[in-house]
Write a structure and sequence with these properties.
Length: about 70
């Protein structure tokens, strides 16, 4: 969860790519999200202020969810 209250999670099942979700509070449901240029195997590790921190096959990746998702 970010300081502004945005919530994200990674759902991981063995032998399948992880799925990343964002909580849509108005619809009261989780929506699958993908970040532009991201590795399909990345998993959410945490956040630093409003920046999400993911781990992928190359190391750490950082995304500002509001900017990244708006540009999809």
């Amino acid at each position: 969860m970010t300081p502004s209250g945005e919530a994200f999670l990674t759902h991981y099942l063995p032998y399948n790519p992880p799925l990343n979700y964002a909580l849509d509070r108005t619809a009261n449901r989780w929506n699958e999200v993908a970040f532009p240029g991201s590795d399909p195997m990345m998993t959410l590790e945490g956040s630093e202020n409003e920046t999400l921190v993911f781990e992928d096959t190359k190391g750490l990746a950082f995304f500002d969810p509001l900017q990244s998702l708006a540009n999809r």
